[in-house]
Design a protein that fits this description.
The protein has 104 residues and is of the alpha/beta class. It folds into 2 domains: 4-62, ATPase, nucleotide binding domain (Nucleotidyltransferase, domain 5); 66-103, no CATH class. It has helices at 46-52, 76-84, and strands spanning 4-9, 13-18, 21-26, 38-43, 58-60, 87-93, 97-103. The chain has a 5-stranded mixed sheet with strand order 3-2-1-4-5. Strands 6-7 form a two-stranded antiparallel sheet. A hairpin with a 3-residue loop joins strand 1 and strand 2 (13-18). The N and C termini lie far apart (35 Å). The model has no long low-confidence stretch (mean pLDDT 91).
Amino acid sequence: MKKIILCDIGNTTADIYENGICQKVILSEFKPELLMGEVWYISVNSVLSERLEVLQNWHNCATLVDLEKYYPTMGIDRIMVCEAIDNGVIVDAGSAVTVDVMRE
């Protein structure tokens, strides 16, 4: 079975979920090329995203979503959460506090 790793990359840290364990890594110390297995990620950090494009085992989850349904400045982190539910309220307290309401 292939090992799948999930990674949520923000402005200052990356949250990595691997083998049932979550860990937070400061981006200045993050070495993505050392992660073995298939890594599916979302990233709001354009500089790091450019580095990941050349890594064969890193896959951008943004390619799986119809981004035309969302306004252009909405971050992929918020988009992915909105894609995950049909009806509900999403409150995110990251770099900014955001509230999204999803109805079908």
